[in-house]
Please model this.
Amino acid sequence: MAIAGIRGILGAVTDYAADQFRNARTKYVPMEVEVEKVRYECFNHVINCKNHENDIRVVTKEKEWRMVGIPEFGGSDKTLMDYMEERAKEQIAKNTASQNAVSALEDGTAEIVTKKDSLLDRVKDWWNEEICDEDNSEVGSDALISEEELANTIAHELNHARDFLRGGEAIEPPAYDAGNALADFIRGGR
Amino acid sequence: MWYDDSKIGNILDCINPPIKESFPVKCPVCGKKEGHLYFHRYEKNGIRGGIWTWCSACKCSEHASGWAPQWWDNLEAISFERLASMPDYLEENKDCIDEWVNKLLFLNFNKI
Model:
């Protein structure tokens, strides 16, 4: 079984707890409970007393059977270890995405192309990184401002490109994760 | 099916001041008033994000990722998990996206 890192462990615990609470339900069971009962007695209690002035508050504790609601956590079949394994797999997938991107740069399958008069140049004051469609990935000059930025950009685009090649829709979240993972790798975070 | 034409990126000119047009804007490829734009900031207060420009009429689109403009706020109705390079999901939500972009432009440039 894969082992999650410390962030993975914390994430797994959080996921597990959230799942337990999300699926929690209240189960009612008969239970003997102690009930506080209050009555008032006349201070000068006499037969047929009609005043009941200066009442005394008398509290007694009695036991009786009641239906009591007990929170029942869970409802999901997943154990904490299942969550740990999921997190670990996720981390491994991210690391693999980083390694793939590095390999692609090293073996030349990733290429940096800069084009003039492209969308990137027109809006370069605030937008100049990369464009992706099914055939091309363009990298703008602002993506080259740092190794971290470039790594993030290329890993993001490679993820899209690979997804297109697999016939996927190139959805954003995994590409974003891949970019962050490689940027983190460059920063020395993993 | 979406087609690539780099001219669709000219839609971005519509959000550079002075703002002259509201969304949907005239498509730079086919000329129909069906041009849309959407940014999505990846993290709240983060600078990185994705951008999509597309035309509902001629089906040209372009997607990029980079730095989102400072004035941009994500539209809550749009789920990050469903965003992809091709703007099918955005096309389904184009009406509220246009309304949102117009609102942001009005609030930030006050000229629509």
Observations:
- Chain B is about 20% helix and 20% strand.
- Residues 6-97 of chain B form one domain.
- The mean pLDDT of chain B is 88.
